[in-house]
Amino acid sequence: MSQPNSSELAVLKHLWRGGPQSARQVHDAVGPGQGWKPSTTRTVIARMEEKGWVARADVHGMAVYTATLDRTATLGGLVRHFARQVLDMDGPIPAALFAESPHLSDAELDELDAIINAAEDKKGDKA
Fold it and tell me: Which family does it belong to (predicted)?
């Protein structure tokens, strides 16, 4: 599976934190910091929906979006990709580096540690 880019990650982080949101709510929270127009936010969300990373539901006639990607698994994949492919790191990656993140609970940090330090498959890391 491919990894979310920075725009998609901004939307995911907002949905993970805030739960189901309309495109307008996502835009109001994320768009200004990204320099997006409302149409850009809708385009990013639509592409994420096509990838299966967000799910759309109609609530009282309004489209509401929910993140379908698991937060810990997604963040773990990004960390692992960066450490292995960008920094060429071998060996364990200390998940404790992320202990101050507002995005992860203690249980999620334990899960993150397991994800980023999972045994590499024989073909190498494809994250």
Answer: Belongs to the BlaI transcriptional regulatory family.
